[in-house]
């Protein structure tokens, strides 16, 4: 056995990522956006990506959905993804027009959605991230998912590419339930006019807002009912952070001044 060795398991093609760690990817890992390399283009119904498979009488962990694995598989209607998947590579589900829902298993280890990973999924209605490991959403990762209305990003997300949400004609709400900062606003790269469709998406922040700008590990708790209008959803709280931080600073400075005066007397 060797890295990148290709084999079949339950009518799906896999390839070895790391022999010693016993990790495999879905698909061959070879880029060609015109056809899928994990299954036949006529693969239909519900697609289930397992957590483990067996090959040569050994148990292997499925950690990646490779590039172009299911490109143009227009008969797949639903996708269930195991918790061991850590990365979905570029063009993995490119133009799978009829997928209606994507569900990641609870405690999903997914960290990265590469560019065009879920591009042109015209029928996608729901996507559910089952864990809190996702960090990066790449270029056009959700581009032109025309009927998707709602996305909830887990608290781990730290980077969303400027065009990751381009062309979502019916998108009306994004929930971000995590920690961010004024220096690392995950929505800062997205321009309202050029990178988002439509332009009136609501962002609901239900989280702790961390600011490195106004003090080391300074935290401001936000009311869970606060609704913010795109595109400055998180940045709008700079003034609140500044006010709270400086008020606290003034309070401690005043106590310190009183202590000095008492010592002098």
Automatic annotation (TrEMBL):
Highest taxon listed in the record's lineage: Eukaryota
Gene3D superfamilies: Ribonuclease Inhibitor
Protein name, UniProt field: Surface antigen BspA-like
Claim: Repeat is one of the keywords in the record: no
Alphabetized SUPFAM superfamilies for the sequence: L domain-like (SSF52058)
Keyword field contains Transmembrane helix: yes
Keyword tags: Membrane, Transmembrane, Transmembrane helix
Record-annotated membrane-spanning stretches: 244-262
InterPro entries in the cross-refs: LRR_5, LRR_dom_sf
């Amino acid at each position: 056995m060797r890295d990148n060795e290709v084999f079949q398991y339950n009518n799906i093609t896999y390839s070895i990522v790391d022999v010693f760690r016993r990790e495999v990817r879905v698909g061959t890992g070879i880029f060609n956006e015109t056809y899928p390399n994990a299954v036949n283009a006529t693969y239909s119904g519900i697609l289930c990506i397992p957590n483990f498979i067996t090959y040569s009488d050994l148990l292997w962990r499925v950690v990646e959905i490779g590039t172009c694995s299911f490109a143009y598989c227009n008969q797949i209607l639903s996708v269930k993804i195991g918790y061991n998947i850590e990365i979905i590579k570029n063009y993995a589900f490119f133009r799978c027009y009829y997928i209606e829902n994507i569900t990641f298993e609870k405690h999903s280890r997914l960290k990265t959605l590469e560019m065009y990973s879920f591009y042109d999924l015209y029928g996608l209605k729901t996507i559910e991230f089952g864990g809190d490991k996702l960090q990066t959403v790449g270029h056009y990762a959700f581009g032109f998912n025309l009927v998707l209305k709602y996305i909830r990003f887990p608290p781990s997300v730290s980077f969303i590419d400027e065009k990751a949400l381009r062309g979502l004609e019916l998108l009306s709400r994004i929930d971000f339930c995590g920690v961010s900062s004024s220096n690392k606003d995950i929505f800062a790269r997205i321009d309202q006019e050029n990178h988002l469709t439509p332009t009136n998406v609501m962002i609901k922040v239900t989280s702790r807002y961390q600011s490195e700008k106004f003090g080391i590990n300074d935290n401001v708790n936000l009311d869970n009912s606060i609704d913010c209008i795109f595109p400055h959803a998180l940045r709008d709280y700079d003034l609140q952070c500044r006010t709270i931080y400086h008020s606290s600073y003034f309070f401690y400075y005043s106590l310190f001044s009183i202590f000095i005066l008492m010592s002098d007397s």
